[in-house]
Amino acid sequence: MRLDLDLLDGTLAGHLDWNSATGDLSAPLADEVRELVEAAIEAGGVSGDPVPTFYRVTNPLRRPAELAVVLAERWAVPHALLPAYDALVARKVRANPAPLGAVY
Question: Is residue 16 within 8 Å of residue 33, measured between CB atoms?
């Protein structure tokens, strides 16, 4: 699957070819993404939106939602991963509702 990696301002930074069945990455940004993935696994996860939320990361090269939260550290979530990302965020918010007056 080809994932376009856009900067938060919408500028295309590049793309990534990802095979979720094998965990293979290719394309110009593959090495950079591998470094982010390795760092996330080593840390046990990543922080993300809604802040402060910690997402456990164990196998992001095979799990779309995990790859999405890792990529979201540097780029906008790719369109193809948005459903998985949105479902993960929704589960987190339901599991940890915001206290009265909290802003996400």
Answer: yes
